[in-house]
Amino acid sequence: MAKYPRIREQHVAVFGESGSGKTVLVSSFFGPTQEGSYKNDLWDLVADDTGQGNRLYQNYLGMRDNATAPMATRFANTTYYFSLKLRGADLDAAKKRPFDVLRLAWHDYPGDWFQDEPSSDEERNRRTDTFRSLLKSDVALLLVDGQKLLDYEGQEERYLKSVLGNFRQNLLRLKDDLLSGEGRLVEFPRIWILSLSKADLLPDMDVHAFRDLVILKAAEEIESLRTTLQQLIDTPDALAIGEDFMLLSSAKFQLASNAGAPVEIDLTRRVGVDLVLPVASLLPLERRVQWQSRLTIPMKVLDSLADGAELLAAGLTGGKFVLLEKALARLPKTGKASKVAARVVPILAEAVELAGPKLREMNEQARAQHDYLRATLTQLKLDLEQGVADNVMRKAK
Question: 367 exposed, middle or buried (CB, 10 Å; 0-12, 13-18, 19+)?
Answer without folding.
Answer: middle
